[in-house]
Amino acid sequence: MLRAPGAPRARGPMYFRDGRLRGVCLQISVLLFASYADAFKAPVVEVALDDGATVRDLLARVQGMAAGHALPPAPLVAVNQCYAGADDELHAGDEVALIPPVAGG
User: Fold this and answer.
1) Domain residue spans of the chain
2) Is 77 helix (H, G, I), strand (E, B) or coil?
3) Is the whole-model pTM more than 0.85?
4) For residue range 29-41, what is the model confidence (pLDDT) as tens digits?
5) Beta strand pairing status for 95-99 and 25-32?
6) pLDDT tens string 51-89
7) Deepest in the core among 8, 43, 63, 70, taking most CB within 10 A?
8) Helices vs strands, H then E, count in the chain
């Protein structure tokens, strides 16, 4: 098929060698509370992850940030207001909350 001069070339999807689709990523908003928000100096951080990422992948990314040292190795996590495990898969538009330990009387 001929295309007009200067018209963009149609391209099919591009894949990494391991079979993952390139350029597909999730933008996840991570809600932070109390000491976590203080450490990150923000109530929310945005994290970009590959499609098919899990809660474990998200935690690794957040713990790798400058203030990530404030998080314990396995913080309590909620996805869309339900507690989540490390192997739960994340999807576009998910709301993730990192919940700090609570103390008081």
Assistant:
1) 25-99
2) strand
3) no
4) 999 999 999 999 9
5) parallel
6) 889 999 999 999 999 998 888 888 999 999 999 999 999
7) 70
8) 2, 5
Share of the chain above pLDDT 90, in %: 49
| Closest among 52, 71, 50 to 62, alpha carbons compared | 71
CB-CB contact of 44 with 29 (8 Å):
yes
Q: Looking at the domain 25-99, which fold is it? A: Ubiquitin-like (UB roll) (3.10.20)
Q: How many CB atoms lie within 10 A of CB 97?
A: 20
In the structure encoding, which two tokens stand for residue 30, read together? 């991570």
Q: Which amino acid is present at 90?
A: L
Per-residue buried b or exposed e for 61-79, using 16+ beta carbons within 10 Å of the residue's own CB = bbeeeebeebbeeebebeb
Tokens of residue 86, six digits: 């490390």
- Is there a contact between 42 and 57 (Cβ–Cβ < 8 Å)? no
Please return the burial class of 39, using the count of CB atoms within 10 Å of its CB with bins 0-12, 13-18 and 19+.
middle
- Give yes or no for a contact between 70 and 40, defined as CB atoms under 8 angstroms apart: yes
Cα-based angle 80, 85, 29 (whole degrees, multiple of 5): 40
